[in-house]
Amino acid sequence: MTVNLPSPCRDRNRTNRRMFSSNRMAIWMVVCFAVLAATFGSTISTAEATEFYVSPSGKETASGSKQDPFASLQLARDAVRRVSGASPITVFVRGGSYFLPNGIKFEKQDGGTAEFPTIWKAYADEVPILVGGLPIDGFVPHKGKILKADLKSQGFRDANFKQLVFNGQRQILARYPNYDPDNPYAGGWAYADGEYIPMYKDVPGENRRSLVYKPKDARVWSRPQDVEVFVFPRYNWWNNICRIDSVDRDSRMITLATDASYPIRPSDRYYFQGAIEDLDSAGEWYLDKETQTLFFWPPGSIRNESVFAPTTRTILNIGSGTSHLMFEGFTIECAEGDAVTLNQTNDCRIARCTIRNVGDYRGSGVTVRGGVRNGVIGCDIHNIGRSAISLSGGDVPTLTPAGNYADNNYIHHTGVYYKQGVGVSMTGVGHRATHNLIHDCPRFGIGFHGNNLAIEYNHIRHVNLETADTGAVYTGGRDWLGSRGTVIRHNYFHDILGFGFENGKWESPHFGWGVYLDDNTGGVDVIGNIVARAKRGLIHLHSSRDNRIENNVFIDGDMQQIECSGWTATGKRWNEHFDEMVKGYNSVAGQPAWQSMRNMDVPPNDAVLPDGTVMSGNTFLRNIICYGKPQSNFVRVRDFSFDHNFFDYNLIWHDGLPINTGQAVYGRPLSDNLAPNPSFERGTIGQMPQLWRWQIHPHGDSVGAMEVVSNAKGMGQGNRVLRIDADFDQEKPRDNFPIIVSEPLELKLGKAYRLTAKMKSDHVGAKANLMLQSYVANAYFWANWPSDCDLTTDWTEQEVTFQIPQRGADKWHEKMTTFRVRIDFSDESGSLWVDDVRLVEIESLDPWTSWQAKGMDQHSLVADPMFVDRANDDYRLKPDSPAFDLGFERIPVEKIGPHSDTFRASWPIVEATGAREKPFRAHSDHPESSPDAQSSVDAK
Fold first, then answer.
1. pLDDT digits (tens, 9 = 90+) for 724-762
2. What is the DSSP letter of 804?
3. What's the whole-number mean pLDDT along residues 872-894?
4. 653 with 526, same domain?
5. φ and ψ at 183, to 5 degrees?
6. Are residues 517 and 658 in the same domain?
7. Which of 814, 844, 874 corresponds to the end of one domain?
8. CA 123 → CA 22, 72, 98, distances in Å?
9. Hey, is 639 helix, strand or coil?
10. Is 276 helix (H, G, I), strand (E, B) or coil?
11. 206-219: pLDDT as tens digits
12. Closest Cα to residue 739, out of 762, 711, 768, 715?
């Protein structure tokens, strides 16, 4: 009796191979037997194993033996069906190309059992390549270096493919502007024409089907209706690919056939693709669908079967009910959709495979839809249209786990077409992503939304390369449920870039975090991770609640290390998603499984805190926070309750510099009133007060007024008050409302001040601001923010406290020598009255002491953590590190990332190189771009 086992644990290191000498083979067979048993969750029977063989040189009439192999996978599958369930089955597939123009479907009868699994695997060290399409040959000269081939005679029927593969590389659909291999992410773009509109400013009536191009980007196409626009609209969160409906050359307006996700605004980046007129560089191609002719400028010599195109959406389609089916050691490429789908399967695995060059805007590498305990193990997955691995399944109301997983994979260059494509996507309950290496993704490394998920021992670097407002890992909780119960533990995230538009130019790094818990995320544990180098911050809690941030190492965030931005009960976001949150909470409120979920006894209706904020239940304990840039902050908080969130036992080190928390606790006044003519007593009634003047008066004296009036019903110090009438100019985009300022004041840099004024309006809710400003035109501008005033029809005292930047600090400028008190009245109608303006210097605690005075970090230390070699990214701690005195526990860095294993596609992993090693810069052809704008791609 023989049992056909998986091939011996093929660590490709030859030294390891020599360990298994012939006199140890018996022991080795037992070990492999145990590995296979563990793989399929049960003890394997010692029943006679069944083996079949497939070879490109096989025959249609073969028996399927090693000496007489089948010619196709379909023949082997049908043979398996005839014996399935009687014994363990292994189908050995010899090296070579297997073209599957319609893919191949596996059903329930093609699987096995825990006792008798069915395994399809590469024979020995050979590489079988499964191609979801057909080869193309018969190329003849067309024009210059462009060749052409007739597809009708080569098995293609009504070809309409959007991908072409040559020598294992996906080629470029003819485009304008051309792809820039020296600057692959920021280069090769055109930019929509028009006057820039701030990203977060809403514009009524905007449509999502129009794009205005610049005169230099005008194109002449014989078939404009076949051309597509590849565009990042408005927010730069993801892209769209929309077909052109019409072109108005007079207005330079392109109308799209479908809506983009958002309106396409001036300066948004895009390119055109799919016109033969734009086929003008090596690697580009064009398909004439009417004549079924392929035009191609090959970047190298064409050999037999070196060019092929997809003819199916899925290559391996594993159907519902299939169990204990495994594919091992294949290269799988060229499909319009997913390379592999597992639909409601159980205990199936894709192992030790290379998956590449698959997927359009909606197509991923491996998609697991439902089922239980399905895994993607040890695969190399790259150049994928959407996501490398997508896992779903499980039941949210009962918290029944699916147990699907992605383990020990090497993933890079995802999101080729869909720029929210990630390394691993998880939705549902009870999945895990472990020991993966992920890099070069346009957005997140791992995106997740669900419950009781595990993200552990992953190494993620150089992601967020093409989008903004993003992180290495990301989730959201607008339904109140996500992603409660999830653990993010023992990962290494570093060099999280981000790419976006700022100050008139496209730049990187830009607006990215390491760990991003967005939009009310609840109940996530972030424990024992190393997070290094991100532009906006290393972790962001966006109105998140009930999260534990413990025992992490946060290193060298740029703007700040930790950011907590809350919602308020009166704010847009809370009210916008409130009904969704209530619905989510009510959907599980009575479920027994949810009763032990952290703080789920608080429904959305009871979540608003006494101060009007909603962010609560977050703890930051025993973390190491270490950073070096002088202007970087330790923490930034907004709409954050110090009574309901907690920091303590942390070790903070700013390389010996002060710890900036953005907090200031103010004390007694240190000066008299410094405001000039504070009660407007100096001046004539009906005229402007002395020592005050207009800064902006949109229509001049013809509309509105600023004048001293009688204080018969006032509450100020004298007999007069200042009245400002509305003068809002709808025609101007800015500087369109009254602004008055005092005469210049000489104040102390680095000192704290309190500015107050009594104000009222003739209607509730009028818009006004009270601030101190300093600026020199075309040099710098500084003012204290926020400065909004909450006005009623009664006199109320408005107050703002702030600190003027000290010399050398962020926002300080060498020309900052004088300051002015400023009052804005931005309402469209009515009047504003002002009296008793007071500006006094006040006592101020330093930011770290102020932070502690608010109850934060009472037992924390400011000290050097004593890393082994911080300069070379060795964040292990020396034995005498003060972090251990605070209870910090060692992070098992040696376990992070992929590892040698029977089911690893290659070992050691040789990381992809090429374009990412070159500077990633803003496009110098963009008129607003700076040629000096560089990214941190070459960071450690």
1. 999 998 888 888 899 999 999 999 999 999 999 999 999
2. P
3. 98
4. yes
5. -145, 65
6. yes
7. 844
8. 20, 15, 14
9. coil
10. helix
11. 999 999 999 999 99
12. 768
Q: Is the peptide bond before 483 cis (omega within 30 degrees of 0)?
A: yes
Q: What is the largest CA-CA distance in the chain?
A: 112
Q: Would you say residue 431 lies in a domain?
A: no
The pTM score is 0.85
Which is nearest to 414 in space by CA: 437, 462, 460, 382?
A: 382
Other CB atoms within 10 Å distance of the CB of residue 519? 18
Rounded alpha-carbon distances, angstroms, from residue 589 to 364, 483, 584: 35, 16, 9
| pLDDT tens readout for residues 4-62 | 323 323 333 333 333 223 333 333 333 333 434 444 443 344 468 899 999 999 999 99
Q: Is residue 920 part of a domain?
A: no
Q: How many CB atoms lie under 10 A from the CB of residue 684?
A: 11
Q: What are phi and psi of 99, to 5 degrees?
A: -85, 125
**Alpha carbons 739 and 822: distance in angstroms, whole number:** 7
3-state secondary structure of 725: strand
The reply to whether 522 and 648 lie within a common domain is yes
Amino acid at 231: V
Do 618 and 717 belong together in one domain? no
Pair 879, 813 in one domain: no
Domain count, the chain: 3
829 and 883 housed in the same domain? no
Q: Where are the beta strands (DSSP E) in 677-751?
A: 692-696, 706-710, 720-725, 739-742
**Taking the alpha carbons of 29, 30, 32, 36 in that order, is the dihedral positive or negative?**
positive
221 & 293 share domain = yes
Q: Is residue 773 part of a domain?
A: yes
* Measured torsion, CA atoms of residues 712, 713, 717, 721, in degrees rounded to the nearest 10: -70
Residues 818 and 874 in one domain: no
Three-state secondary-structure class, residue 457? coil
Q: Which domain holds residue 857?
A: 492-665+851-891
The Cβ of residue 60 has, within 10 Å, a number of other Cβ atoms equal to 8
